[in-house]
Design goal:
This protein has helices at residues 7-17, 36-46, 62-72, 84-97, 114-121, 139-145, 168-181, 235-249, 254-266, 269-292, 317-327, 354-364; strands at residues 23-24, 79-82, 104-109, 125-130, 150-156, 184-188, 211-216, 229-232, 296-297, 305-309, 329-330, 332-333, 345-348. It has a seven-stranded mixed beta sheet, with helices on both faces. Strands 9-10-13-12 form a four-stranded antiparallel beta sheet. It folds into two domains: 7-34 and 269-364, Aspartate Aminotransferase, domain 1 (Alpha-Beta Complex); 52-266, Type I PLP-dependent aspartate aminotransferase-like (Major domain) (Aspartate Aminotransferase, domain 2, 3-Layer(aba) Sandwich), CATH 3.40.640. It is α/β, with parallel strands linked by helices.
């Protein structure tokens, strides 16, 4: 999979140029309100003394790192607050590939396209390993693909685009595999607040020097534009990551970090519960319409994406454009996520028009 301009942008541009109304189900931009405490935090910061507008600690505001550390049961020194989960994953992947432990990278297929892009940019040799039919990682296939040159394994759970929540046994097996071949497992848990099974367990509960966990507040607080994420490293790996972060970014945004801190401290669990309930309703309505359309689909256990396959209508870029023009619904071509689900189309249920889009698809097919 060669890395070029992400297909996301091509699809969005095509949808924007369409001469009809189009329901955008392309990208994972939440459409709901952020926590009220986040807005309050921004207002508070605006009235701080001018010295608070200068550089903050490079690794992140001390209080924010402390709050994350307490919630994740780690030491604050292990945390780097980053420019979203994107930088968190970049730092983790760079740390894996700069250890002189090889340049092999094992990724799932289907895969979030930015993973192979980052890996290739960092000089990694990417191998896509197809998941099992239901979307669970095929651990044995991963083991067969691993070699002494494997330096990095990436697992995103809950998963984009399949919606699968990987079992604890799967994550333990991947950590064990990473230890066996001296690779690093990067567990991207950015969708951890969107678990509909009640069975998600963070990889932080698996103790290992070969495990890094990344996350962000972009999705859980509906603030993708704030770019506040974090990576949690073993003590032996964190210093080099902090140096790379400092050289690339100097430091993160103080007002964004402060607002997130206030939201963490003051937002009640009901905020997240209501969001999950709303998304569960959307998932039910959308998959009911897919049943009506005679489609195969993945029902999300987590995150907020649905992969669907329509008979005689493979998920190519050309067919995605056709769906925009003829049905007024924009999704992502399956080929963007790798060859294993190239016949499928991914829909992001982060629009209040998800039910309307579902009806359009049912009528069209």
């Amino acid at each position: 999979m060669d890395y070029e301009e992400p297909l996301f942008f091509r699809v969005m541009r095509y949808a924007e140029a369409a001469d009809r109304d189009v329901v955008d189900m392309v990208s994972g931009n939440p459409d709901w309100e952020p926590p009220a405490a986040l807005r309050d935090g921004l207002r508070e910061f605006a009235d701080f003394d001018a010295d608070e507008f200068q550089y903050g600690p490079s690794a992140g505001l001390t209080e924010l790192r402390g709050e994350i550390a307490e919630r994740r049961n780690v030491d604050p020194s292990q945390i780097v607050v980053t420019n979203g989960a994107g930088e968190a994953n970049y730092l983790a992947m760079a740390r894996a590939l700069e250890r002189d432990a090889g340049d092999g990278v094992l990724l799932t297929d289907p895969v979030y396209p930015y993973y192979p892009g980052k890996a290739q940019m960092l000089g990694g040799d990417v191998t896509l390993v197809p998941v099992a039919e239901g979307g669970e990682i095929d651990v044995e296939a991963m083991r067969e693909a691993a070699t002494e040159e494997t330096a990095l394994i990436v697992a995103n759970t809950p998963n984009n685009p399949t919606g699968v929540v990987y079992s604890r046994e799967t994550m333990e097996a991947l950590v064990s595999l990473a230890e066996e071949v001296d690779a690093l497992l990067v567990a991207d848990e950015v969708y951890d607040h969107f678990d509909y099974t009640g069975e998600f367990e963070s990889a932080l509960t698996i103790d290992s020097e070969n495990r890094i966990v990344t996350s962000a507040f972009s999705k859980s607080m509906a603030i993708t534009g704030f770019r506040v994420g974090y990576a949690i490293f073993p003590e032996s790996l964190v210093d080099a990551a902090k140096t790379r972060h400092m050289l690339v970014n100097v430091a993160g945004s103080n007002p964004a970090q402060y607002a997130v801190l206030q939201a963490l401290r003051e937002t009640e669990p009901e905020y997240y519960e209501e969001t999950r309930s709303m998304l569960s309703d959307r998932i039910a309505a959308f998959t009911d319409a897919l049943d009506e359309a005679g489609a195969d689909y993945t029902r999300p256990e987590g995150a907020f994406y649905v992969l669907a396959r329509f008979d005689g209508f493979p998920g190519t870029m050309a067919n995605v454009e056709r769906l925009i023009d003829e049905a007024g619904v924009a999704g992502m071509p399956g080929e963007a996520f790798g060859p294993a689900r190239a016949d499928w189309i991914r829909f992001a249920l982060v629009t209040p028009r998800a039910q309307e889009a579902a009806k359009r698809l049912a009528d069209y097919f």
